[in-house]
Amino acid sequence: MSRCSRPVRFHGRWCLTDETTYLSRGGSDGRELPVTVVTSAQQERITVMRRAGVTYANIATHIGINLNTVKTWCRRAGVTPDTSVPQVADPVGVWCLSCGAPIASARPAKFCCEACRRSWWHAHPEAGQRRAFYEFTCPECGQGFAAYGNKTRVYCSHACYIRHRFGTRGGRR
Fold first, then answer.
1. What Cα–Cα distance (Å) separates residue 101 from each residue in 41, 80, 108, 110?
2. What is the rounded distance in angstroms from the CA atom of residue 146 to the CA atom of residue 131?
3. Concatenated DSSP letters for 5-52?
4. Cβ pair 62, 95 in contact under 8 A
5. The pTM of the whole model exceeds 0.70
């Protein structure tokens, strides 16, 4: 394990609250298996959502951790839906995807502020639906390439453009 800010006991083993996984001796063969640890920030978000009646599956999807990790943590911590709290079926639009803060907006939103939106998209670039990919073949080198968002692109690189346009390797003739 790396440097620890606050070590805690987890299943008879010391681990960090800031880490999400660590290796544990598992099985009879003694190989190391990853074990997921719920961080304190995730614990708070899970508690708020579960008390509001959000399902385990929706919590896991919203926070980005395993469904069974959420179930196990809720059962061990004794977190159950609270009838005195307004019940929510879907957490999207109620809590920020990045920080978990309540969203106070009249229109549908996923994030509480611009900083949270930028940080979440920076951490999850694969979540975007990138549809504007165009396939081309470079007239200079013959190599196939894909360009995002530019359907008029001709060359795969600036060097190929210079070679094709001026007949040089980037310098003077």
1. 11, 20, 15, 11
2. 12
3. SSEEEETTEEEESS-SEEEEEETTTTEEEEEE---HHHHHHHHHHHHT
4. yes
5. no
Instruction: In whole angstroms, give the CA distance from residue 21 to residue 30.
Output: 18
Token pair belonging to 16: 């960090």
State which amino acid sits at residue 173.
Answer: R
State the Cα–Cα distance between residues 37 and 28, nearest whole angstrom: 22
What does each C-alpha distance from 84 to 80, 81, 89, 153 come to in angstroms?
A: 12, 9, 15, 59
Are 15 and 22 within 8 A, CB to CB?
Answer: yes
Q: Structure tokens of 76?
A: 């061990």
Q: Tens of pLDDT along 29-65?
A: 666 656 667 888 888 889 888 888 888 998 888 888 8
Distance of CA 85 to the CA centre of its chain: 28
Cβ(63)–Cβ(123) below 8 Å: no
CA atoms within 13 A on the CB side of 169: 0
